[in-house]
Amino acid sequence: MPKQFIALLFFSLLLISTLFAQQFNQQPQHAIPLPEFSLPDTAGVVHSISEWQGKIIVINLWATWCPPCLQEIPEFIQIQAEYADQNVQFIGIAIDEPELVNDYISFININYPILIATTEGGKLSQRLGNTMSAIPFTAIVNQQQEIM
C-alpha cells in the first residue's frame, strides 16, 4: 500500500504541475509600445525608428562576433526580398564597432538598413523586450507600433 500511495501522490503532483504550467503559458502576452530611438547607419547618418512607422518592422540585434547572428542574416535577406512589397521592413541593429560592421557588410549584400548601437545597444535591446540580454534578438513590431 505505501508504494501505491507514493506512486499516486507522485502522479498527482505531476498532473497538477503540468496543468499549472499550461495555464501559466496560455496567459495572453501583452504588446509593448515601440520606444522611440535614433541610431546612425553604417555611413554615420542618424535614423529614427519612426521613419518606418506604418510598416511591419522586424528589428534584429546582432554583432559581427556572434556566429548565430551571422548565420541568420542570409535568411533575413531572403525574407526581406520576399516580403518588401507587403509592407515588411527588416532593420538590423549591430551592437558592435562601426569599423567591424562595415568590414562584414562589405562582403555580404544586405538589402535592409543596418544601424549601429555600440554602448547603448544592450539597454535598447532590453527596451525592445530582450529580458535575457542575449543576441541574436529579434523583435517584431506591428503597424500600430507595438512589439509583439
Short précis:
The chain is an alpha/beta fold. Helix content is 38%, strand content 22%. The strands form three sheets. Strands 6-5-4-7 form a four-stranded mixed sheet, covered by helices on one side. A two-stranded antiparallel ribbon has the order 1-8. A two-stranded antiparallel ribbon has the order 2-3.
Your description of this structure?
- The chain is α/β, with parallel strands linked by helices and 148 residues long.
- It has helices at 2-25, 67-83, 98-105, 121-127, and strands at residues 32-33, 38-40, 46-48, 56-62, 88-94, 114-116, 137-141, 146-147.
- Strand 5 (88-94), helix 3 (98-105) and strand 6 (114-116) form a beta-alpha-beta unit.
- The chain contains 4 helices and 8 strands, in the order H-E-E-E-E-H-E-H-E-H-E-E.
Q: Specify the number of helices.
A: 4
Regions with pLDDT < 50 over 5+ consecutive residues? 7-15
The proportion of residues in beta strands is: 15-25%
What gross morphology would you assign? globular
Structural class call reads alpha/beta
Instruction: Provide the succession of SSEs.
Output: HEEEEHEHEHEE
Mean of residue pLDDT? Answer: 86
- The share of residues in helices is 25-40%
Report the major sheet: 4 strands, mixed
Number of strand segments: 8
How far apart lie the N and C ends?
A: 52 Å
Read across the widest sheet, the strand sequence of neighbours is 6-5-4-7
Rg of Cα set: 21 Å
